[in-house]
Amino acid sequence: MNVLLKNSRLVMTQGLINGEWVDADQKATLVVDNPATGEELVRVADMGAAETRRAITAAHGAFPGWSATSANQRSLILETWYDLIIKHQDELALILTAEQGKPLAEAKGEIVYGAAYIKWFAEEAKRVYGDVIPAAQAGRRNIVIKQPIGVVAAITPWNFPSAMLARKIAPALAAGCTIVCKPAAETPLSALALGLLAEQAGVPAGVINMVVGSDAPAIGNELTGSKWVRKVTFTGSTPVGKLLMKQCADTVKRTSMELGGNAPIIIFDDADLDQAINGALISKFRNSGQTCICSNRLLVQSGIYDRFIERLSEAVGEFRLGNGQDATTTHGPLITDKAALGVDEKVQDAVAQGARIVTGGAPSDQGSRFYQPTILADATPDMRVFREEIFGPVAPIFKFETDAEAIELANSTEYGLAAYLFTQNLSRIWKVSEAIDFGMVGVNETAISSEAIPFGGVKESGQGREGSKYGLDDYLETKLICLGGL
Hints:
With 486 residues, the protein is of the alpha/beta class. 38% of the residues lie in helices and 20% in strands. It has two domains: 267 residues, Aldehyde Dehydrogenase, Chain A, domain 1 (3-Layer(aba) Sandwich); 185 residues, 3-Layer(aba) Sandwich (Aldehyde Dehydrogenase, Chain A, domain 2). The chain contains 14 helices and 20 strands. The strands form five sheets. The protein has a seven-stranded mixed sheet, with helices on both faces. Helix 3 crosses helix 4.
């Protein structure tokens, strides 16, 4: 085991099924490595279909007891879980940086961000309200109640392995559901640590189950095919999300999907340039661009186009690539060699079609998973960097002239997760915000995520919302009780 983790009491290498930490049935393991160094961190249980079935059975068995627990008791347990996460945030951040690669400061931010969802839904658990509807006939009363949907399956990605899981487990438990979690095979340690702290907080056996495995199709088939799983929540790519939705159709499961993004950031001539530069830096380069809501396309009006590129290049020149555990590092590696290669292929496609490299534009000598922070000028909609999610530290900049052109460019994608615009014109703010087809719009702000907002997209970026007062809706069934003969 890696020397930085060997003394951690939160590093778990087994799956969690029905309150027990267990190895894979065949004792198979998978390697978790540090993407900054390639060093093996640990080997964890590599589970499959059989273990997933047992986890589903455990969640099904635990559901009656957990759903009957009072909202106040569920709230107290979630609050205790939140407190434990905050208490151990430094250790959790170290685990996260080791397996995912992001700088330690970003990792700490993710831990606190994810924990905020647990605290939020601890409070929302006590606010699941029903209705009394006036009856059309005398002697009747119509009562509407909300009940937990049942067993939930959660499949989460590697880019935010702690926060994405927390914001799925928290509303599920608050609503009275039980859950089976399948974290990404690249970053299972953060999820397993959350499971351990949940146990310590008093979450009963079987309420939270963790199945780690490299055979995602086998595990996914069990989750989508089981009659006991009533909802699947997934964060990941659009192609996988579509496949899961198709598989869920046979048993008509509820689904919520947070899928791919292709976020535009629109910088108008009248923007506060300091504000726009800072927003672009945060949105584009956070987690080395491996963020579903990061600005994928920078649309800049012609009047400030050259000045914006110059200022952005100066700021990017201050970045420092390296191991996330180094205090001087501002940006870490990409998650795999394949990911880095894919980013470079998109950059070279753009250059071949006429894009101009302002800075970067090649792999870094730091290692095979590092890519130089890159700015591409003179980008056009024919390039892959316009059509596809880059998921790397590459900022392609496109020039536009009019508001109408900016709106058309922004909407020229099948995705619709997040978008951003910078302008001081109030009329333009309203017009453009309403005209662009995205689930979330940041105006003069790119750091829009929090537990209090409804996170989610439209079109092929998904369905459903996570967080906010709407966040419990996907975990609840609405039931009518019609009382007659009164």
